[in-house]
Specification:
single chain; mainly alpha; 73% helix
Length: 99
């Protein structure tokens, strides 16, 4: 019986990396804009509740960007086990710094 093989991926790993980096940069730019809004709110004497809400959004955006960066590094390690730029222990330590 012949087995059916899935078609080979036509996505260039380099293109996928560039796309992932673009997403991360977009997250960081969004966080930068949110942080600017927090600074303006503090300088203008905005309500504490509003400032804390905006600050929470900045914090979450930065956390998500950090997780995306670590996830990208993990994917790279899985795709190329011979690449020793980061050991699994180093990746774990990096991930835990976000906690």
């Amino acid at each position: 019986m012949d087995s059916i093989k899935a078609p080979a991926s036509t996505v260039d790993p380099g293109d996928a990396l560039v796309a992932q980096q673009r997403k991360i940069v977009n997250r960081l730019r969004r966080a930068e804009g949110q942080l600017s809004a927090v600074i303006r709110a503090v300088e203008s004497g905005a309500e504490c509740r509003d400032i804390v809400t905006q600050l929470s959004a900045v914090s979450k955006a930065l956390d998500r960007a950090g997780y995306a960066i670590v996830a990208s590094a993990m994917r790279t390690c899985l795709a190329d086990p011979e690449d020793q730029s980061m050991t699994p222990d180093e990746l774990e330590k990096l991930f835990l710094t976000l906690a």
